[in-house]
Fold these 4 entries.
Entry 1:
Amino acid sequence: MSGKVAVAVRLAVDPAEAFRAFTEDVDLWWQRGIKFRFHPRKNGVMRFEPGEGGRLVEVYDEAAGDIYEVGRILVWQPGERLVFEWRAPNYREGQVTEVELRFQPVEGGTRILLEHRGWETLPGDHPARHGLADVPFLGTMGGWWQEQLAALKERL
C-alpha cells in the first residue's frame, strides 16, 4: 500500500488568501458532525496555532483545558505550503499520519494540492480503517478530504 491519498481543489482567490482562509477560518469551513469532528458531541471550535511548532486543535473548553490536539505544525509557509501531523482520537501512542498542502498560483486563483500520507503506519485492523481493505479505505479518506476542500471552496 502506498499509504497516501491526494486531492486538489481550485479556488478563485490568490494563494495568500487561500492559505489564510484554510488556517484562520478553519472553524468556519471545517464541517461539523460525527463524520468530521473529533469529539462531535462536545461542539468544539477548530483552530490552527500559527507557525511551525503550533498545533491544529479542536477546543471544547479552553479554560478547563479541554482541547484535542490533532497534531503539530511541521511547515508553515503562508501562501505556499502547510504540513501538519494528524492523530485521530483512536490512535495509539506514537501513531501519526501527516497532511501536506501546497498552494499553487493558477490562472484566476489557486490550486490547493492536499496529500495525507502515512496510512501504512496504521495496522490493517486499526479502528480508523473501519474494517476496510487498503484501496477502499484510501478511497474513503480521499473522499473525506474532497468534501472538506469543497466546503472551503463554498465558504470562499
Entry 2:
Amino acid sequence: MRFSRILMLALLALVAGVAIAFLTPSSSLLGLFAQAVIYAIFALGVGVLLRQNGLTSFGHALFFGAAGYAMGVILTLDWFSAEIAIFVVLLGIGVLAFLIGLVIVRVPGIAFGMLTLAIGQMAYLLATRSRGLTGGADGMSIPWPSTLFGVKQSVLLKPDVLFLIVWTVLIVVTLAVVWLLRTRFGSITEAVRDNEERARFIGITTTVPRALVYAMSAVVTGVAGVMSSLNTGFISPESLHWSVSGIALVMVVVGGFKSVIGPILGAIVYFLFKELLGDFATYWMAIFGAALIAVIVFSPDGIAGALERLMKPRHTRANATSKSGH
C-alpha cells in the first residue's frame, strides 16, 4: 500500500474520531473510549516488538508505568516544565530500553520473555517500597500544571477533548511506526527476524537493530503511559505489574501482530468486550478467554488477519485455494 493512501486512511480515521467525540452522548462512555485508545497505543508498542523482532515481552508495563512515575517525579520536584518533561521522559525511556535491549535481545525465545518479566517485576517492587519518592503502594498524584501546550487543564480533561487528543496521538504514532517500518531499517529488522544467521553472513550487525526495535516499542508504550497519567492524574505500582503487560499481550494476540493495526483492533475489542459483559463481571474473563482460544484456533493471525482475508477479492482467494491444492 502506498504511503499516500495510508495518509488518506489516517485522515479518515481522524474524521471518524471527531465524529465519535461529538456523537457519543455519555461522558463515561467517552472516558472508556479514551482508555481503550490509550491501551491501543500500549498494545501497538508490544505488537511492534513481536512483529519486527519475533520476541514476546512480559515486562512492557515497565515502560508504561515508568512514564507516569517519571512525569510525577519531575513535575513534583519542578525540574522541567510539563511540555519539556514529556519529551525528556520519552527520550529517557528510549535510551534506557536501548541499553537494556543490547543485553537481552541476545537471549532467544521464552528466556527473553522471562528476562523482561524479571526486570519489570524488579521495577514494580522498587516502586512499591520507595515511599519517599513514589508514595509506595499508595501511589502518587501527578501535579499537572493548569496549562499544557497553551491549553487550560479544565479544557484538556473534558471527555470529548481528551478522547480527541489520545485518538490523534494514536494516529500520529501509528503513522510514525508505519513510516519507520517501510524504511531500510524495517527491511533490516525483518531480515534479522527471519534468519539472524543469514543476516550476519551478509554483513548485517544484528544486535543493534534488534535493540533499536526494543527501544522503539518501549517509547511507543511510554507514550501510552504519559497519556494515561494525563487521563488519571495518578500513578500506582499496579501500572508496573506483569498482569498489565499480559493484558497488552492478549490484545496483540486477539488483534493480530502481523499487521500494524492488529494490536489497535485487539485493544478496542478487549474494552468493548469488557463493557458489553459488564453484567457478567464475575465471569467476563472466562468468557473472553474462550473467545481468545477461538481466535487462536480459527484465526492465528488475529482479527486483522481475518479481515484481510475477507477483504481480498474472491478470485484471489480462489487462486490461493487452487494453488494450495496442487
Entry 3:
Amino acid sequence: MKRNIFKKATSISFILALLFSISTFSQELTVDDYKLSFSFKTIKKFDNSRVLEVTFIGKNREDRKDKIPVYDAEIKFFNIVNGEEILLGTAKTSNEGIAQLILSEKQKYLTDSDGYINFTARFEGSETLDSEEEEILVKDLQLHLELKEIDSVKTIFVKAFTIDSLGVETPVEELDVIISIEGMLSKMKIKEGTIENGEIEFELLQNIPGDIDKNFTVYAQILDNDEFGDVIQKQTVNWGTFTKIASEDENKLWSEAAPIWMYIVLTILLVGVWANYVYTVIHLIKIKKEGKNLELSNKE
C-alpha cells in the first residue's frame, strides 16, 4: 500500500515538474522570438461594397506551427494618390489577429493616371511592436453574373470590364474565374475558366440540389488577382432539384408512435426496476423482524 502511494506521489511530482518547466519555457519567449506577418488584401463583394482586411500574426522563428495573433492592434486604412492621404477608417484586430473595414458601394476613391486605387494599411506601432505598413494597387473591376436558360440549356454568363473616368467600358482580357455553388458548409466549385474579351459562358449540365423551392446560389469569383484583388458576384436561381422523402406508415424512433419492440423493452426495464425495489423492501422487513427476534431471545 505504501509503495503504491509512493508511486502515485512520484508520478504527480513528475507531472507537476513537467508542467512547470513548460510554463517557464513559454514565459521566457519574447517578442524577438516571433516574426510578425502583416498581410493586406481587398475583397469587392457582390453588392459592390469593398472589404479591406489585414491579418496580423506573430510566427515563432524556430517553431513555425507556433502562431500568435496580434490582438487589439489599431489599423488605419488610407486611400493615397500623389502623396495625398485620405483616411478611410480604422479597425482593431480581433482575437484571430484580423482587422476588417467595410466600405460602402457609394465610397469614392482617388485613382492614379492608370486607374489604380492605392490602398494602404498602417499600424503605427506600440511600446513592444514596431510599426507596419503595406499597400496594394487595384483597379475597380465590374463583374456581372447572368443566368439564362437558352433552348432548355441552363447557361451561366460572366462579364468583366473596367470603367475609366469618362465612363468608357474596357473589357478585361485573360482573367481566371471560378464558378461555385453555395453549399451548407462551403462553396462547391463546378467550373473554372478564363475570361477572354470580357466574357465567358458555361453550360450547367449537371443537376444541382436546391432548397425546398428548388433555389440555389451561384458564385462567380476572381481570387488573388494581382490587378483586381478578390472580386465576388452571386445570384440565386430556380434551377435546383428537390426530392421529398416519402413518409412510411411504419413506426420509427422519431415518429409520434414508437415501434412495438420499444414498448416491450421499456416495460421489461420498468418492471425490473420496480421488482428490485419490492424485493429490497421485503428483505428489509424480514431483517427487521429477525433483529427483534434476536433481541427477545437474548433477553430470555
Entry 4:
Amino acid sequence: MPHALANYSRTAIGIVIVALLLFPVYWMLNTSLQGSENLLETEWFPFDLSLEGYQRAIDSQLGNLATSLLISIGAVIVCLAIAAPAAYGLSRTNIGGRSVAVFIVLLLITQMIPGIVIANGLYPLYNSAGLLNTIPGLILADASHGIPFCILLIRAFMQNIPHSLLEAARIDGAGEVRVFLSVVLPLSRNALVTAAVFSFLFAWSDFLFALTLTNGSTVVPITLSMYVFVGAHTQSWAALMATATLASIPAAVLLVIAQKYIASGVTGGAVK
C-alpha cells in the first residue's frame, strides 16, 4: 500500500509539473483563437473561436517564416559540413591527449561567450564584407553559434565507432575520405540528426544576430518580425499569439519526427 501511494504521489507531482510547463503553450493557443484585442479580456476557455488572428498572422508574417526557415536550413548545412569532419578528426587524432583536451576546453569556452558579444564583434566584419542585411550573413552567424556544440556532440559519438571497422575499410582500399563518407557518417546518423536538430533550433530561435546584423527592412526573420509586430500592433494580441503559434510549429514537428534519433544521439557517447 505505501508503495502504491508513493507511485500515485509521483504521478500526481509529474502531472502538476507537466501542466505548469504546458500552461504557457495553452494560453498562447487560447489567446490566438479568441480574436481578443485586449489581453485582459481573454477567457480561460475559447468557446467562441475566431481565426482572425491567424488570418492576420498569415497575411503579414508568412514571408518572414519562410526567411527564418531558409536561414535555419542553411545554418544546419554549414554546421554539419564543418562539425562532422572536425569531430571525426578530433576523435581519431594521433596528437597528444592534452592537446585535444585543450581544444575541447576552448570549444566549451566559446559556448560561454554571450551572443551579444559575438554579434557586436561580427558587425564591423560584416560591414566590411558586405554581409549586413543578407541571408548568407545570418546563416554564417547562426552557424557559428552551433558549430562548437555540434563538434562536441558528434565527436562523443564517433569515439565509440570500433577501430576494426575503419581498418577493414582501409584494408579494402578505401582512402580516408571514403572511410569518412561511407563508414563513419552512416554509423553516426543519430548524432548527425541530433546535431542538425539543435542547430536548427539555435538558428530558428535567434534574435540577437537578426537584431544586430540587419536593419529590419530587407531580411526579417520571424523572431525579429514578432519584436517589431509587438511595437506596431500592441493591441493585436490574437494576431501576435497566432504568429507565435505558427512559429512554434516547425520546431515542434521537427522534434516529434527526430525524437528517437535525438535520444540515441545524446546518449550515444555516454557509454564505452
